[in-house]
Amino acid sequence: MINLIKRYWKYLVFVLAILIVVVFGYFFYQKNNTVSTPIVKKLSLSKQENDSKTVFVDVKGAVNAPGVYELDDGKRVIDAINLAGGLTDVADTINLNLSKKLKDEMFIIVYTKDEIYNYKNNDEKNKEITCASFECVCPDSKNDACIENESKKEDDANDSEEKVASEKISINTASKEELMTLSGIGEVKAAAIIKYREDNNGFSNIEDVKNVSGIGDALYEKIKDNITL
């Protein structure tokens, strides 16, 4: 036996060295694999956290804990109020849309019953900030949680339409200089429009402008949205 060891000791040392390398390699691999696993989980968690958006809202008034709160995107006004400790005993939410979705930097005011009552009975209240169903009001037009009055929306739309109409050029009353502000209408055509309306007691509809010398279908299409009677 001893003779065999002496004879083949070099081979035995070589085999032993290989075994040592294999064992150390195995433990090294296991150690690295164990360490890397939590890192992967942590990175995955961070990505998930980044994908989750939040908004900050300022809740004031008749709540138990006014302040700035962070909520998940998609939450509602009622969620912000609940996070702020809920409503106080004197709160009145009749003018608020509690189901309204939150947005970043939203400003929410919960009024008291007395504030709503006093504002409703104030003869000098500003009609423009009425924001409920014809029976209650929002004392602060900056309150993002308020219900918008549908009649106010219609009034705003009508005002916008009237403003657009007032910016159009009247082919029956406009001066030569005003007519010349229309695309494709120079001094000669502006003078022709004025002469036509004088000779024919004005235009009865805007399409009659095509009867003016020098104004055809192509030019009419360019100016029709900018003229009125």
Describe the structure.
This protein has 229 residues and is of the alpha/beta class. Helix content is 46%, strand content 12%. The protein is built from 7 helices and 6 strands, in the order H-E-E-H-E-E-H-H-E-H-H-H-E. The strands form 2 sheets. Strands 2-1-4-3 form a 4-stranded mixed β-sheet. It has a two-stranded parallel ribbon with strand order 5-6. It starts with a helix and ends with a strand. The model is unreliable at 34-50 and 127-135 (pLDDT under 50).
The gist of it:
The protein is of the alpha/beta class and 229 residues long. It has 7 helices and 6 strands; from the N terminus they run H-E-E-H-E-E-H-H-E-H-H-H-E.
SSE class = alpha/beta
Structure summary, number of beta strands = 6
In quaternary terms, these chains amount to: single chain
Distance between the termini: 123 Å
What is the overall pLDDT average? Answer: 75
Major sheet? 4 strands, mixed
Question: How many separate helices?
Answer: 7
Estimated helix fraction: 40-55%
Low-confidence stretches at least 5 residues in length (pLDDT < 50)?
Answer: 34-50, 127-135
- Strand residue percentage: 5-15%
